[in-house]
Amino acid sequence: MANHKSAKKRIRQTAKRNAANSYYHKTARNAVRKLRAMSDKKEAAKFLPEVESMLDKLTKRNIIHNNKAANLKSKLAKHVNSL
Q1: 3-state DSSP call for residue 4?
Q2: DSSP secondary structure letters along 13-59
């Protein structure tokens, strides 16, 4: 266990960030699943920018790689256009 005051603070900060990042990541994954499950084109087209924004924020926070976000956005756009 950490002995230094700064190390204890670092542990607290890391735990807090980890919890927040997990929440953002899980929320975005659920949104992607929800979009893939949609069958109405109009509704899906309306929801797509929100999901893309979530993925961009995950990329900005270094939670997911920018190429992964790009691949997901591309596949989701293809899915919406094929409806």
Answers
A1: coil
A2: HHHHHHHHHHHHHHHHHHHHHHHHH---HHHHHHHHHHHHHHHHHHH
Taking only the tens place, the pLDDT of each residue in 31-52 is 999 999 999 999 999 999 999 9
Read off the CATH number of the domain in which 66 is found.
1.20.58.110
Q: How many domains does the chain have?
A: 1
Report d(CA 42, CA 79) in Å as an integer: 12
Q: How far apart are CA 72 and CA 42, in angstroms?
A: 20
Q: Are 83 and 42 in contact (CB under 8 A)?
A: no
